[in-house]
Design brief:
single chain, 435 residues, alpha/beta, 10 strands
Length: 435
C-alpha cells in the first residue's frame, strides 16, 4: 500500500476557511465515493471533524494522487483550488502513517491529548467500510491507528487533564464568568458533540439542563438520560433568555443563533448577574460571530479556542513519550507491511515448486509403471520433503529481510532468480486484498 494523505486542519488553515470548506449533509459520502473512483486510487477514507478534513488513499501514483484528491477537496468543499492549495498538507507512505498515528494519539488535536478523536477515527473507518471504499489496506491501517491511540492513552499521561473541546471551552468561559456549577445551561443540538457537552454540563453540576434539537425525540431521549428537560426547537429564543450558559453544535449548514437572538436574550436576562456565556463548537459555526461584540454576551467559538490552544501548556502531558510510541508503532507497521508484501512472491514460488514436483512425479510414473504403491508413495514423499527443505530457509530469511527498509528488493530478486510469472504473483496479491 502506498498511503497518501491530503487535507487541511486548524494547524494549516484559518477557522474562517475551515468553515467555508466544512462538509455537511451528504457531502462527506459524495467526496468519499469520488475519491475512491479516482484513477490513481485503490482505496479511500475520509476523516471529517470540526477542525480537519483529510482524505486517506492508497494510490499507485503520487503526483497524480495529490492532484486528484486536491481537486476533489476543492470541488466538494466549494473553496477554489488556488485558495485551498495554500492551506493543504500532503503526507506520503511512512510520513502519512506517522501523521495518522499522531492524530489518533491526540498530538495533532486543538486540545492536545483529547480522546474524542478516537471515536471520530472509528466513524471514518465505519463510513469507508459501509460505502465499500476501504479494503484490506486501509482497514488494517485504521484499526492499527485506533490501537496506537489507545496505547498512548493507557501508557502515558497524555490525557491527564481529561480535556475535550467541551471542557476546554468551558474553561475559557469560566475564566470570564466563573464555573458552570449551579448555573442554568442550554444545549442546542443532540448529536455526538452536543451529547458530550450535555453530559459534561451534567457532570459539572449545573442547576438546570435544557436541550433543544430539531428532532424533538432525540432531545427528549438525551434529556431523560441526563436528568434534564427538552424544549421544542422553535422555543430556543425563550430558553436562551433563561440560560446562563449555552453550548451549540447542530451540524446545520447556516447560522442557528443570530446576533439578534442573543441580543434579545441578553436584554431579557439583564437582571441576572454576569454575561450570557455562549460556546459554539459547530463547524460551520452555529452562532453569528457578530455576537462577539454584543453587550452582555460572552461568545467562545472555535476561533477563540484555536487562539487559546496556542498558548496552552502541554508540557505535563507526556507529549514526548507519546511521540516515542508513535515512532515505534510507525516502524513496526512499516516492517509488517514490507514483510507482508513479499508473501505473494513466496506463495507463487512454492506454487511453482509444487507444480514442478507434480510434473516430475507424473513423468516418473510413466517411466516406471511397475513401481508398487508403497515405493511410489515413499519416492513422492522424499522428493517433496527435499524441495520443502531447500525452500524453507531462503523463504524464512527473505521474509525477515523484507521487514527492513528497502526490503522490496528481496521480492524482486526472488522473482528474477526463479523466473516467476508476474501474473501468478499478482493473482496471490489480489486474493489477499479481497480476503
Amino acid at each position: 500500500m502506498s498511503l497518501l494523505v491530503v487535507g487541511l486542519s486548524h494547524r494549516s488553515a484559518p477557522v474562517g476557511l475551515l468553515e467555508r470548506a466544512a462538509l455537511t449533509g451528504h457531502q462527506p459520502s459524495r467526496l468519499l465515493h469520488a475519491a475512491a473512483a479516482a484513477t490513481p486510487v485503490a482505496e479511500a477514507a475520509l476523516l471529517n471533524t470540526c477542525n480537519r478534513i483529510e482524505l486517506y488513499a492508497d494510490v499507485d501514483k503520487f503526483h497524480a494522487g495529490v492532484a486528484e484528491l486536491s481537486t476533489l477537496l476543492a470541488e466538494h468543499s466549494g473553496v477554489a483550488l488556488d485558495e485551498l492549495t495554500a492551506h493543504l498538507y500532503v503526507h506520503y507512505e511512512d510520513r502519512a502513517v506517522h501523521h495518522l498515528f499522531s492524530v489518533a494519539c491526540g498530538l495533532d488535536s486543538m486540545v492536545v491529548g483529547e480522546g474524542q478523536i478516537l471515536g471520530q477515527l472509528r466513524d471514518a473507518l465505519h463510513l469507508a467500510q459501509d460505502q465499500h471504499t476501504a479494503a484490506r489496506g486501509l482497514n488494517e491501517l485504521f484499526q492499527q491507528a485506533l490501537r496506537v491511540g489507545k496505547r498512548a492513552h493507557s501508557e502515558t499521561a497524555i490525557d491527564k487533564a481529561g480535556q475535550t473541546l467541551v471542557t476546554f471551552g468551558l474553561e475559557q468561559i469560566a475564566a470570564v464568568a466563573g464555573p458552570v456549577a449551579e448555573r442554568r445551561a442550554l444545549v442546542v443540538g443532540a448529536g455526538s458533540m452536543s451529547s458530550l457537552a450535555a453530559a459534561t454540563l451534567a457532570r459539572e453540576g449545573v442547576a438546570e439542563l435544557v436541550i433543544a434539537n430539531r428532532t424533538q425525540k432525540k432531545a427528549e431521549r438525551l434529556a431523560e438520560q441526563l436528568g434534564g428537560r427538552a424544549v421544542p426547537f422553535d422555543e430556543v429564543g425563550t430558553a436562551l433568555a433563561e440560560a446562563d450558559v449555552v453550548i451549540s453544535c447542530t451540524g446545520a449548514a447556516g447560522i442557528v443563533l443570530t446576533a439578534e437572538d442573543l441580543a434579545l436574550a441578553a436584554e431579557k436576562r439583564s437582571a441576572f448577574a454576569g454575561p450570557l456565556s455562549v460556546l459554539d463548537l459547530a463547524m460551520p459555526r452555529d452562532v453569528d460571530p457578530a455576537a462577539h461584540v454584543l453587550p452582555g454576551v460572552h461568545l467562545v467559538d472555535l476561533e477563540t479556542l484555536a487562539t487559546a490552544a496556542q498558548h496552552a501548556d502541554s508540557g505535563a502531558l507526556d507529549v514526548d513519550a507519546v511521540r516515542r510510541i508513535v515512532g515505534e508503532e510507525v516502524d513496526a507497521f512499516g516492517a509488517a507491511q514490507r514483510a507482508a508484501a513479499i508473501t505473494p512472491t513466496v506463495v507463487a514460488l512454492r506454487a511453482m515448486a509444487t507444480e514442478l514436483v507434480t510434473a516430475e512425479l507424473e513423468r516418473l510414473d510413466g517411466r516406471l509403471p511397475e513401481l508398487d504403491t508403497r515405493t511410489r508413495a515413499e519416492i513422492q514423499q522424499t522428493v517433496r520433503r527435499v524441495v520443502d527443505k531447500l525452500l524453507h530457509q531462503p523463504t524464512v530469511r527473505v521474509k525477515q529481510l523484507a521487514g527492513e527498509p528497502g526490503g522490496a528488493s528481496y521480492a524482486e530478486a526472488l522473482r528474477e532468480l526463479f523466473d516467476l510469472d508476474p501474473m501468478a504473483v499478482e493473482a496471490v496479491s489480489t486474493t489477499r486484498m479481497i480476503s
